[in-house]
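@channel sequence for tomorrow's demo:
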Amino acid sequence: MDGKAGSADGESSGAAVILRVLRVSLHVGFAVLLLVALVRLLSAGFERPERLTLGLPLALALALAAVYLLGTVLEKRHSTDPSRFDPKPFSVWWLGLVSLLWLLLIGTSADFVWLAFPLFFLQLHVLPRQLAIPAIALSTLLVILALWFHGRGSADAALQVPMVLGPVFGAAFAVVTGLAYRALYREAENQRLAAEELRRTRAELARTQHDAGTLAERARLAREIHDTLAQGFSSIVLMGRSAEKALDDGDTARARDRLRTVQDTASANLAEARNFVRGLQSPALEQSSIVNSLRRLCEKTETEAVARGAGLRCRLDVEGTPVELPNPYETTLLRAAQASLANIWVHARASTAVVTLSFLGTEVAMDIYDDGTGFDPEAAAGLPARPDGSGYGLKSLRERVAALAGNLDIESAPGEGTVVAIRLPLEVGGTAAATADKDGQ
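structure tokens (generated this afternoon):
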């Protein structure tokens, strides 16, 4: 896209340079022809005793120069700064005044007839084509009549062929060149508008991509906070309550054990927060494999369940030969187990939870089973997150699994327990691993 924009800008700027050269050449030509006519008029006047007759053509020539210069200056100022006065609505009146002054001048001297050639271009530029062509034809006729009128006293007073062919061929050349100029002007304008539209579209696309990236990052942050810090703080609150109850009962040993668990959980949460800020993987996976991390998670889940007075037993089963997984895969599996086990000991009132991690060659699978109260997955999927920020677990888990092109299935029914099944594809030769590592960075 950037290349196309650069090409469009280059073409537009090239056409703009050509138009600028043509426009400057037109103005310079008009000024030169007017100056030559004035010089010839003045030199002829000095040779005549009736020099006072020069006053009218001189005044008309100066007025023509002033009007022409005013129009070109206003047009130039507006083209460089569109907020300035726009002379375009008055361009026809300006051309009419220039043509009137020229008409009066050719009545005083034949030297001014050659100003018709730059006027041809002005008529083509300012007037619509259906009016410009008749205006040029009329101007050509006036040139021929002026040449004949001012040549009456000479030996060749009759209308000569060169007197007709010169203006006619000049007008024809001006029409062809003017039409080419108009086509080039229109093409340059279209390219300029296309380049501006392309720049606007590119800016809008950049804003859209930035907004999409911001939303994706917010969703990622929400998942990380829910699956790490929020779960840890929830555990700290529950352990703190259990320690307080133990103190009320006079059981200092149990209170000390609960406070030690609070310290361990707070330290783990602090490590998660620090790694979270640096964008790294879970501390539990930095110095351990996914199997050992899941095993410690099961032990921690049992401890927290006991603190709540629940007799939950949690175990890890590993099937197949464990292989090293990409960091995003291990993080997703660990977060899924954390969220699922937290739901089990908080909501399910289960007595048994089993985490099964299976290495199947082309995929890695993890099933989390509990024999708790169960629920209706379809009804739960339609519920919004609760005001306190909870209720986000399943949505977060689905987003994590979908990011790795995996599948998440939840089988449950009221009173029949729950199974959370996750399947993550592994391509042969490490292609998926390399892709996942790149996505996870």
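heads up for whoever presents: The domain at 294-441 is CATH 3.30.565.10 (Heat Shock Protein 90).
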